[in-house]
């Protein structure tokens, strides 16, 4: 009861003089009597935002404690970043253990939010606890009851809680007074310990030594597609079905029903801008192109325009608008490439020579990403004469396409452009559309990759493409789903890209394609397929992880329903992802024991277990693999010899598993994966 | 070479309009192109200071990286907290691995410091790297050499480095020009790759995109005794040698030579203030004292004065001054108790009733620390009417004793007083004496204990007293020496205290006392002994971890050289601690394998291995224990079958150990510990 201040006294002796700065420090420190520390998640001390999507729980944990032995309480306060903290919402913290507390909130609209924590000494809870102990020991006196009435009187006058709470507290006080007048100590005690009193004093009780975490921790809330999406990548110019005819947006429109059948939700195009002719690349990246070779779409810019123009052979802006609209009708959002680089023919080179690095001989150095060379490309720079003008120009290009209906951007090589540029540009675009999504194509060092997530990228290409063994998949996924990066970096598991024809797929045959699909679509929130994968295309440039006859340098034509395609597998996984809520929570991933190093066995689930999936994937494309595995009965509160129903979702059978250890077998030719849904 | 800006160009097209706030954000972000993150050590984002002592290395690590592929460099900048950062010192970071860099500094005076990190793109290093690759491929051209000369010209005009560096750079430029005039490409290349050029451009080269970590991380530097001390605790009133005569400061002075022989460096007294008579405690904490009982010294305050007075029977302030001086001559610093609590007779109660919690019946609640009750004590509070006056009063009491020559304060129960008070008070005292040392007596929850270290305590009582098993000692010490808390919390391992008569010692006999001494003195930087321990005093209040006939409630007399004392062991360890530099670095502690769960086996060392000690301690006071153990030959770069010399410091023999596995035996009666010094 140390702060009830029932009997305030006056000093009878003057205190000593003191300096103003010493007093200012004293008062500032005294404000925060309750310690609030170890706050998670908070990225780099609040320098960067924690990421969530609409509806996804944010659980905040903190160490919260005070000197002495009194009870404390705490609340999470949060609100949109542009709303004054005094008007934020509040939700209670719950004690976990060892001075650790936790609170969970969700956000229902995309945009920037912030949160903080308040904590206080809860004198009423302390009273309840001490009074009970004293009463149990037969030592409760009138003093404690007087103190209780005082607590209620102060709460009634605190201004906290609703009007009903204030009225309720006033009435509670009156009832206590009446009981006191009657000398009914038991009655007062019982009333002060009642649920009603607990509820009223929680709502309106004075918050003694109210302390506040100094940080206002930023949270960025995305629309769900930022964390849960299935991408399909095509070169529009290869969609005519005829290698001799440049594809058009109308050709893409004609392909939409067929793509829709596979169940993707994002349709992504490499650059669709005019292509330069200087140092144009020929087939297979040759430096000796034929006249009719289309060149690499990454050599952006020609007399027909630059990053805000369309390649004339693809169609007009009207065609493009129609494509966006038609794609939407087929459940597909269009994503385009944002590749900040220029063909030597790009209009910028004449209009903005200050954006380029001119060498003493009057040339501009072409792009390199050792050992790769890009003779048809020059890079801009971002500082000196280019600061800030190119920052604006690039932002405005993104805004231009946003205005054309594109809300998803796959960004080429972002790690070779300054982090501050991305942080600023993405923030600027989000002011216009908080639903804009940026995918970072940065196959680079781990910390660089993570930094791009911190500065704002919604999704990131990952190392998945090169993780094939069971142990490395488990290790990598455990990092991605459980370490701090899970709060700011969302991987997108591409099974292949125009730049990456994985070694594994070059030798795995069709079973390996199904295996990698099952891994990407089953493990990740975001995953992607570059077209041709469904046809098990694998021919490499010999000795390299590149595709022979790459679409980057020539127009291709494919029979999208060729024998041996795995469209059914793709459709199955995309349907599963849409039907089962478990698939939407990347972080619910858990690995379980399967006693075979060639079988990856993992689960995904909703918190309430209403959607609980188990996946088994045979990593060996050449041999049958199987063995015993552990059914996570414990997650359902079942004993090791318990019984659970497992529906083989593909096979359709419903099995009954009794006991924790079961066995299964996966034939790569037949079906290299299995998916079970568990129900009690 | 992206920033050499050799051929600046002007824009030929206007850039778009933009908002001032957008531009401000752009420019602010652009300032820090190089990412600097993951900075360690930094406590709670710089909210609290990292602790070091004079001469102790501070190694700062950080992830430092930039976009693109250019070389970067970084420096640690640091200086006294009151010096403007522009005038700080600078030391180079070295690359470690995976974008991690490290730099080490030491501080030569106690006080507050700060550090930060700067990093930049190193165009010269990039040039060196690229030019070498091109030359090796036979592709170095005049362009690269022109760029090199430009780098030197800019460095010569940068204003960085000494005047000699600037002159050297100017000359380097001239030599390059001359070589260029002669068309000597090889000569220019060789000169630009020379050590001379590396050194000059390191000193004077332009720091492109100079970026700065935003934090100025606080570091508190103590004098060495804060981290390395051996405490001996006595009740001055028990130093007369006669239970019927109250000891005096002069009696303590007479004891100094004998205490000095044991080699301690801090002599600590429980409160030496006037003791109240209201509710005075009798022998063995009874509530029925005899007239002549002295009362607990923790019941501070009587008509003779309060916290700034001396208990009259101990002596005068002149006597106390003499004691401080004499103690100094015997290598002992005096530490006193700072116990913020009052006997009901304390003058404050009348002078400052606003500092106490008055109950409705006009009484003040007495102190409790359930289940312990302190009927002779009332507590002050720190808020409401006591804010800020009691804060000043308490600060001034510490300053009062500082003025009397006391620089070390053992603080009683700091966890029941507000953290902000400690943070403010300790900061205030340090302004007067940066060598003041505060030891927190807080046997409480782990996070509370750690918080006291964060807010400024130099030393902390620890859980050592209750860690007896091998696994729990290893686990606890590993936490203390390797986790983040090692940067702000320094444990003081007391083997016993007037409040704690450990169960282990109640049944261990003399061997157990020697074991616990070896553990405390061998493991910790700071350790302490409450007198009586050296006599193997163990009689408990039955069933409790308290001493029977505790000095807290009565005057005792001891025969300090009684048969069976372990003064020689104490003297040995204190001598070892002073002689061997390894003992001064608590964090150099490492545990090694001894294949016996009753033998704790650990090492301490200096970085250069010139002081390398191995300790073996038999934890079982009743049986011989021994077995095979691993000699850490690898730390000396020796193979598993290598040979090393081991001096048995107590026995005096020098052994030759060949091979990693050796064996040893410890007889608890003979000597339950062994200490070896390894030399190649």
TrEMBL record, chains A, B:
Organism: Jiella avicenniae
Subunit field text: Homodimer.
Any one GO biological process: alpha-glucan biosynthetic process
Family per similarity comment: Belongs to the glycosyl hydrolase 13 family. GlgE subfamily.
Xref: InterPro entries: GH, GH13_cat_dom, GlgE, GLGE_C, GlgE_dom_N/S, Glyco_hydro_b, Ig-like_fold
Domain of life per record: Bacteria
Record flagged with keyword Nucleotide-binding: no
Residues that, per the record, bind alpha-maltose 1-phosphate: 281, 341, 376, 413, 552-553
Record-annotated site: Transition state stabilizer: 499
A Pfam family this chain is assigned to: Alpha-amylase
Gene: glgE
The keyword Amino-acid biosynthesis is annotated on this UniProt entry: no
Domain Glycosyl hydrolase family 13 catalytic: 233-571
First-level EC class: transferase
GO MF entry, a single one: hydrolase activity, hydrolyzing O-glycosyl compounds
Residue ranges of coiled coil: none
HAMAP family: GlgE (MF_02124)
Biased composition (Polar residues): 278-289
Protein name per its UniProtKB record: Alpha-1,4-glucan:maltose-1-phosphate maltosyltransferase
Span list, region Disordered: 278-304
Active site per database record: 412 (nucleophile), 441 (proton donor)
Catalytic activity: alpha-maltose 1-phosphate + [(1->4)-alpha-D-glucosyl](n) = [(1->4)-alpha-D-glucosyl](n+2) + phosphate
Free-text function comment from the UniProt entry: Maltosyltransferase that uses maltose 1-phosphate (M1P) as the sugar donor to elongate linear or branched alpha-(1->4)-glucans. Is involved in a branched alpha-glucan biosynthetic pathway from trehalose, together with TreS, Mak and GlgB.
UniProtKB keywords: Carbohydrate metabolism, Glycosyltransferase, Transferase
